[in-house]
Amino acid sequence: MEQPIAVTRQSFDDWMVPVYAPADFILVQGEGSQVWDQQGKSYIDFAGGIAVNALGHAHPQVKATLIEQAGKLWHLGNGYTNEPVLRLAKQLIDATFADKVFFCNSGAEANEAALKLARKYALDNSGSEKNQIVAFNNAFHGRTLFTVSAGGQPKYSQDFAPLPGGIIHTPFNDLAAAAEVINAQTCAVIVEPIQGEGGVLPADPLFLQGLRELCDRHGALLIFDEVQTGVGRTGHLYAYMQYAVVPDILTTAKALGGGFPIGAMLTTNRLATTLSVGTHGTTYGGNPLAAAVAGMVFSLINTPAVLEGVKQRHQWFIDGLNQINQQYPIFAEIRGGGLLIGCVLNKDFAGKAKQITQLANEEGVIALIAGPDVVRFTPSLIIPEQDVKEGLARFARAIARICS
Ligand SMILES: *Cc1c(COP(=O)(O)O)cnc(C)c1O
Q1: Ligand 1 proximal residues by C-beta, below 6 Å
Q2: Which amino acids does the record list as binding pyridoxal 5'-phosphate (predicted)?
Q3: Do 246 and 348 have their domain in common?
Q4: Which residue's CA is minimally distant from atom 15 of ligand 1?
Q5: Atom 10, ligand 1: which residue's CA is nearest?
Q6: Atom of ligand 1 nearest to the CA of 142
Q7: SS3 of 222, please?
Q8: How far is ligand 1, taken at its centre, from the CA of residue 47, in Å?
Q9: Are residues 134 and 33 part of one domain?
Q10: pLDDT confidence of 2, banded at 50, 70, 90?
Q11: What's the CATH code of the domain at 171?
């Protein structure tokens, strides 16, 4: 066999479109919640590939499923359905409010499908005037032009104008403000039960309940973007279950494939008929390889033991982070749910989240940011206690350094 091409971190700057600024080391191997770089240095993984590797790295059963399916059938195209995708659809339907599922490859695509469904449903049932989408400031829904426009951070969309119209933004967790803009012309409201990228900010239960009532009153569809909060992340299979507010459409991706790209839009029978044959689609959506892996990931996570384990791990993190904060007062607030945790830096450390994650890397732990002022943790849902302890000890050393 030919020698593989030699690559270093410099290769990224040489060859890659510079939309990312990756860390200055390259990870090459992972097992459970540990990863290793090219030099063999070990890191505890508190990021889980940004809330994706929900069962850690190289999970034996997921790996076995991938290898088994790889020997059978990788791809067919949508002119032919397949067994893994039908089984995965049934798993999602049995576990949620949904009657029907549309599969795609990412969170953005799932939201794109949801927004298109909402527009067409309103057009078919109420006419072309009912086309307004209400979204929230600081929301994140993906990077396609429609979803980045629905997102509530103009810095991600403004350079790509003209943007799709008919999208109104209003403050998150402000029901009175939402009531001002939701009306007969609203076709959908899209909201994250916990704003992830926007700073790990949980929705107030009364806010989501109020949105449900406003949508019902004005005949608008309620879309929950659970791309980050779904598949056990909060200690509930989906966050809507904890809020006891049922959406009309739910989007899920990230943890669904445990590291293999897949996304899905879940909805009801009544709405699903809107997307009749030929109205929407995607080549890879429902690919048997992705669906087989997701089916195994979903069945491993959707158990009382794993979901309860997330709540227990939440407490390990909260206790450890509070302890660090007592020694080095740096966080104004520690918030989030389950294993989606955000540490909000106090004003003395404002803007230093990225620097903290860089120091954390040096100490041997992978952490995330959620904006410039929040350090975010989204580890594996089954991370072992000793890895939590060791990772927090390493993180504490990083905090000690930024405080000195
Ligand atoms: C990550 C994320 C997305 C986008 O998902 P991609 O797979 O990157 O397209 C959308 N919504 C939320 C809430 C997310 O966290």
Answers
A1: 106-108, 111, 140-142, 192, 196-197, 225, 227-228, 253-254
A2: 107-108, 140, 225-228, 283
A3: no
A4: 228
A5: 141
A6: 4
A7: strand
A8: 15
A9: no
A10: confident
A11: 3.40.640.10
List binding-site positions for pyridoxal 5'-phosphate.
Answer: 107-108, 140, 225-228, 283
Indicate the pTM of the whole model.
0.98
Using DSSP, state whether 123 is helix, strand or coil: helix
Nearest-CA residue for ligand 1 atom 11 is 141
Dihedral-angle region of residue 179 (phi above 0 means left; psi in -120 to 50 means alpha; beta otherwise):
alpha
**Both structure tokens of 20:** 């990312």
Give dist(CA 245, CA 357) in Å, integer: 35
β-bridge pairing 42-45 and 249-252:
unpaired
Looking at the structure of the chain, the number of domains it has is 2
Q: Specify the pLDDT at position 82.
A: 98
Q: Are residues 38 and 101 in the same domain?
A: no
Query: Same domain, yes or no, for 329 and 201?
Result: no
Same domain, 251 and 389: no
Residue 1 has pLDDT above 90, yes or no: no
Residues 39 and 77 in one domain: no
Distance from the alpha carbon of residue 151 to the mean position of ligand 1, in angstroms: 10
pLDDT tens digits, one per residue of 8-33: 999 999 999 999 999 999 999 999 99
Give the DSSP H or E segment for 44: strand 42-45
Please write the tens of the pLDDT for every residue from 232-281: 999 999 999 999 999 999 999 999 999 999 999 999 999 999 999 999 99
65 belongs to a structural domain = no
Question: If you measure from the C-alpha of residue 251 to the centroid of ligand 1, how many angstroms do you get, rounded to a whole number?
Answer: 9
> Which residue range(s) make up the domain with 355?
9-58+304-403
pLDDT digits (tens, 9 = 90+) for 64-88: 999 999 999 999 999 999 999 999 9
**375-380 mean pLDDT:** 98
Say if 67 falls within a structural domain: no
Q: Is residue 4 part of a domain?
A: no
Q: Which residues contact 91 (CB under 8 A, 6 or more apart)?
A: 295, 298, 299, 302
How close is the Cα of 5 to the center of ligand 1, in Å?
A: 32
CA atoms of 307 and 235, how far apart (whole Å): 5
Give the CATH number, domain containing residue 309. Answer: 3.90.1150.10
Ligand 1 midpoint to CA 51 (Å): 10
Q: Do 112 and 227 belong to one domain?
A: yes
